[in-house]
Each structure stands twice: as C-alpha cells, then as structure tokens.
Amino acid sequence: MTACYIKSKKFNKSRHDRGLAALSLCIVLAMAGLSVLYVLQTNGLVGCNYQIRKQEQRISQLELESQQLEIEIAQWQSPVNLEKLVNSLSMIEAGKVIYLGEDKEVARR
Amino acid sequence: MIVILFLGSGVLARLFSLQILDHDYYNALAQDQHQFLATLFPKRGKIFMQDLSSRQRDGEEHHSPLAVNKEFQQVYLVPKDVPGENKEVLVDSLVKILDLDEQVIRERVNKPNDPYEPLKHKVDKEEAQKIEELDLEGLGLISETWRYYPYQTLASHLSGFVGIIEEKKIGQYGLEGYYQDELRGQLGFLSGEKDIAGYWIPSANQEIELAQDGVNLILTIDENIQFKAEKELKQVIDRWQAESGTIIVMEPATGAIRAMASWPVFDPNEYSQVEDINFFLNPAIQEVYEPGSVFKPITMAAGLDSGRVTPSTTYNDTGQIRIKGSTITNVDGKSYNQQTMTQVLEKSLNTGAVFVQRAVGKDLFQDYIERFNLHKPTGIDLLGEVKGNISNLYTGRDINLATISFGQGITVTPLGLVAAIGAIANNGNLVKPFVVERFVYPDDREVVTQSEIVSQVISSDTAETLTKMLVSVVENGYGKSAQVAGYDVAGKTGTAQMADLEKGGYTEDTIHSFVGYAPAFNPKFVILVKLDKPQGIRFASDSVSPVFRRITEYLLNYLEIAPE
To answer: The complex's ipTM?
Structure first.
C-alpha cells in the first residue's frame, strides 16, 4: 500500500513537472513569436514609411511640374502674347458690331 | 558567491548611474541623434484677374494668374570643397553660364574654409542644366520658391511685389502689401524622429501642426480691359510725349474696379533693378492733382441739387470776372453773352462755374463738396492711398471758392474723382471702390466682397438731370471726340494748369483729363483718362477724349452691351 502511494505521488509529481515544463516552453515560444511579430510589424511599418516618402517625393515633383506648366499656359494665354499671335496672323480688330433686332435689318440688306 | 555579488552590485551601480543620474544627458544625446524639429512653411496665396467676357458667354469663371509662387534654382558654392586645380575652370564656366562678374566669382571661390556662398538666385532652366552638366565639386543647385508675376508689367501698380526685409519675404505696395497678412498664411511645425539617413519617420512620437497656406485673391480686375487700358495709355503718352498718365475703369453701381493703369510701369519680377522708388507708387491713388474743368459737374451737381439753378437757368457771360484784384477768364478768353447751365458745361465756361458757386452760396457749396468725399481716402483695398485737399474751401476768400468751382485750388486723387463722378452715374449714390472680389481660403471656403454705398450725395433726379447735361457736352460741346455712335455717352473734358510748387502760381504745363460714363442712362462703367504734361497739344478734347472713345467702344463690344 505504501509502495503504491509513493509510486502514485512520484507519478503525479513527474506529471506536474512535465506540465510546468510545457507551460514554460509555451510561454517562451509565445514571447519569441510575439517578438518576431513585433519585429516584422516594425519592419513592415518602416518599409511602408519609405514607400510613403518615395510617393510623396514623386507627388511633390509632379505638383511642381504641374505648377510650372500652369504658369507657362498662363503666359501663352496672356493678352500680350495673344496680341503678338494676332498680329502675326495679320488679323484686325473687330469694327462696328451690328446687333440684330427682331426685324433683322442686316438680313434684309 | 561574494565575487558574483560584488560584480552584480557593480553592474547595478553602473546601470543606476547611467539610467538615473545621467538620464537627462543621454536622453538629450539620443534626441539630438533621432529627434528633429522642422518649420513648415505655408504657400503664399495667389492673386488672379478675371475674364468677364468668358463669364458672360459661357457662365464659366476664367482666372488669370497675376501673382503666383514659382520654383527657381539657386546656384551656390562650397568654397572649401573646390579643389585648387579646378578653380580656374569653375570661374570661367560660371562667368559664361551665369553672366556674372569674374572678379566677384573669384573672390567667393577663394574664401578659405567657407562652407557656403550663394552665387545667383532665380536661375532659369537652361542655366541650371548647364550647371548640372559641369558636375564640378563644390558647385551646387538648390530649389527656392519666389514670387512670380507671369504678366510682368501688366497691372504692376496693382499687384505690388514681395521683397526681402530682414530676411523675411514681405509684400510691399499694392495688393501684396495691403493683404500681406492674408496672403502669407501661417507657419506650422513638425517634431518627430529621423532615421540614420536623416529622413523623417512618419510614425509614432510625432507632433505636427500643419502650415496654413495663404488666401487666394480673385480680383475685380479684368485682364483684357486692363491690357486695353495700358495699351491705350502707352500709345497716347508716346503720341503726345507726356510725362505720365492714368486710366481707371470702374463699375459705378458696385465700385468694382475693372482696370487701373498707370505709366510709367515696372516689372515686379525685377523690382530690385528699379532705380527710382517713386515708380512703385500707384498714381491713381497715391498722387493728387488739381482736376480743372472735370470738376465742373460736381459744382453743377451742387447747383442743381440745391435748387439754385436748373439746366435752363441763364446768366450773362462777359468773358471775365474780377474778384479783388484777380481776374478769372474763360479758357479761350472769349465771352458768350447769354448762356444756359447746359451751355456752361458744353463750352466749359469758368465764368459759368463761378456763377453756379455764387448761386449756391459759400456754406452750401462747402457742404456739397464735402459730400463727394474728395478730401478723404476712398478706402480702396490697396496700400498707401492718399486723400485730396480741399482746405482752400474754408479760407473764406471769394477767389478760392471761385477757382474751386472750376477745379483749381483743390487737389483730388484720380480714383477719388472717378468715385465722385461715379456717384452721378449711380443715381447720386457714392460707392466705395474695391479691387478684390473674392477671398478663397485653403479649405475652399469663399468670402465675397459686398459693394458698399457710402452715402447718397445728390438725389436721383439731380443725377438724371446732370447726366442729360453731360450727354449734351459729348454731343454738342468739347466732348464730341468722345462720341460713340448708337450710344448716349456722358462726359466732361478738363485741361488743368499745374501748380508751380517752388515759385507759387501755375506753370505752362497742363494735365489733360476726360471723365465720363456709358451708356449714360444705364451706365456699366465710368472711365477717367488722365495725361500729365502732354506736349504739342493744347486741349484735352483733342488728346484724351479720343482715348476715352476707343476704350468705351471696346468695353461696349467686350461686354456685349447693345445700343439703346
């Protein structure tokens, strides 16, 4: 009887020890896993940040080019430039403007 | 065990020293390596003119940029990095590409241990490309933003310019000066962490307050009307070798300024090249002059509104009036016997103006002149406006009152005069002129300027009666050169003597003006054309009246105003 009691106590103790070991292992693995996840996430975040910065630089560049083009367009459309074009095409200023009334005088003529 | 304990204590003590006692020191060191603080600069608000014909035709807004922000390149040297053997090549290349003085470049290249020397701002694309192709050590390019005026001299007095004062960019003159606070925006800041390359890491531990960009201004100025006014002004100045001139176009019902042209002009992109800073002053609002006969409608307004005269009231013109040793004559020296008030304006009779002033009486005459606010700034949103001077009105001397009746002995600004005549055009209501139609904020919110009636200076009946008289001036009087077929045009010429500020009295020089509005009984615009010291021409009816006519014809076509 005593031998059985001692045997079962030893058995229970070894089971207990195995459980503790397993739990410890799980905790260690979990921590390791979380650490790996954290590192991966941080790396991923930093990688995204670099991508964002690259795109922002590209956007700035495009905005700058767009702005330069707008200025160029404005200069081309300026009255000074249009007058030069008009003169080069030998166009003349509009003379007297005839407003058509209901009786359509111009048509009759 | 004791050794381990001893070593462990040592480690703990060291940790305590590093992390607790020296915490602040190492924290600051780490921050310096990883933290950064940057100022975020706002974009300066832009200024736009509009195109009324486009809006009228399509219902679409078309805005042309008067002032924008543009990226330029700046060339700089790092003299301490320039290898000795490359200096000559560098100097020769820079002289050719940048067109700078060789001595200046040589001095800057040879400055020992100098980390930075700016060479040239606002370098254009071709020059920047050539600099890049040189690929020389110690020579670099950097982007910088400058204010840019794409239309150069067009509306330069209106825009003003952005200059550098104590290393800050500050608007000066015109709209840039008046709306400096609105245009400049507000600074922001960014505090965060940087990586090993010095780049910002947009993640945790950052504080950011975004910069607020400046407000964009949409002007009442129409770019085509402005261009036309400036072109006509330059032509008439060249034609009569005048010293300077001004043309203003205003909407009498609202006070919106459609054009404000003055000559001489300057290029705000090259403001530093201007030798005489008086060129920056806007004569339309910052100079005063004795208006001469264009003032007679105001005298007549006093006479009509007070009921002391009517258009058909007559007087006997003897050609001159004597007042205590002084003699006032008509401009042509002639006498015309019996004349009506309408004929006084048609023939621009000084004696007739004095008759009206005497009929109104001193106190009432003073009151009416004050009503037109010629002695106050109009309040237009441009920097540096001055006011006219009517102080001779209060001397109590008959000769002063008499000369004021035909526009001598007082001074007005061109804009003040336009506003006053605009009141006659606008049923007797004096409006406040303005130049900015709308403010557009960075969040796309818009604030529209409301037109403001300052006061009713004369009754609408008086305004209508006076308008008929001014139409008669154009049809039958000295304003015939301003006639436009198919339209009623109201207007008045003025050939004013210029005061001699040194010796007193008047010089031989004159200022020619024409002020008028059309269509007379439903006016869409009031125009002043002013020419200073024209040569070889005696009267305004021959010099500026045709300019008024051409601008009026242009506006009637441009705004598609059908004949009455």
So the answer is: 0.73
